[in-house]
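user: At home tonight, take the chain set out below, taking as long as you need, and be ready to discuss the fold:
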Amino acid sequence: MAGACGRAQAPASKTAHPPAPPHIVLIVADDLGWADVGYHNEEVRTPHIDALARAGVVLERFYTQPVCTPTRAALLTGRHPIRYGMAYGPLKPWETSSLPPETPTLAEVLQSAGYATALVGKWHVGHSSRAAHPGARGFERFYGCLQGAIDHLSHERAGAVDFQRDGVTVGDAGYDTDLFAAEAVRIIEDHDPGRPLFLELAFTSPHTPLQAPDELVAKYAQLPERRRLVCAMVEQMDAAIGRVRAALQRRGMDGNTLVFFCSDNGGARRDGGRNLPLNGGKATSFEGGIRVPALAHWPGRIEGGRTAAQFMTALDLLPTLADAAGATLPAALDGRSMLAQLRGGEPLAREDLFFCDQDDEGNYWHALIRMPWKLVRQDRADGSVEQYLFDIAQDPTEKSDLAAGNPEVVSALAAAIAVWRAASPGEPPHSSEPPEGWKPPKDWAEPAR
């Protein structure tokens, strides 16, 4: 603004300070289906998640891998898990795979940028050695379980307790969702807000075993048994998220906290998860298995009240969150920063997006998205092959298989899938049964080797 003599007024300050890096809270639900949140389906009561959705940006095209370990590996490394042999199934208690030590994790990237780091909840990307545990992969604090599923009350897996704090098994009694919320609140309340915090809050709900407080289950009495249990588990998780947000507000951190919420894969339909109107569910490469609820909330930095159609995957979380933090990105990532798109920038055209899994029957599922096309290929254990082609730009619920009328497209996408498969260093088939003679450890916090 010009003064009376036509000269500009001196600025109030000679130094422009860059905005402080945000606190980052990454919330990951376990087997949460497309229709398992209130903002997609009023059957489920999720007022706190819905409030984040209203105030943030809802991602309607967020993709994961079909099951948990590959998705968690992808979001922690920004590299496709097929590159290091963790792509085709959830890590079983008797398996020894883990994240490659030479590949930086999201926690390590943010730690190098000055962040305090903590993981509360489920790890599921390596348990057989101390070098595979969260404390060796950038998380300064860890409270939760190493395995893919535990009893929500006894905290046991295969007859042994899998519940620890920083490498030591704890006997904390209670429903794990509530214990995770209490620990997250404790971390926030103990934290110096002057230092940026990265907190990954990885719930075990609504993954099996289906267990929830009786009073919540009763609220869904009109639903089939498994469905009412899933809804009750989700509602309890939502309440836990509300307690964490309240803690951020009490500490004055909420105004500069980037919250990202997503599921690790689609809902398990046989266990009461719901993905409608999407096709399929967990452990398949149809949309219901890989397209999941997701949102981002960052007051003043991400304009709220929006829905984004940008294609984004779990691989993009490391570069996106590192970008928000001002951290240096590792080399050779498969993911891309989508921070500009979260903030309302023009959508980016995506490179081929590849998905894969091995189901419990030994069938291999693959999918490749090359807009507007998506090819789903099932290589069955008996040697037969089924291929389905969808125009997901016009048919996002995969109602019309167009493979027969588009053989050239099928051939091109199948060839691209073959190239991705060739990137694998070799991954042994996963078995739902332990090898002969295997016994669980007496203490999951103590590695088997």
User: Anything to note?
Assistant: The chain has ten helices and 18 strands. The domain at 353-422 is CATH 3.30.1120.10 (Arylsulfatase, C-terminal domain).
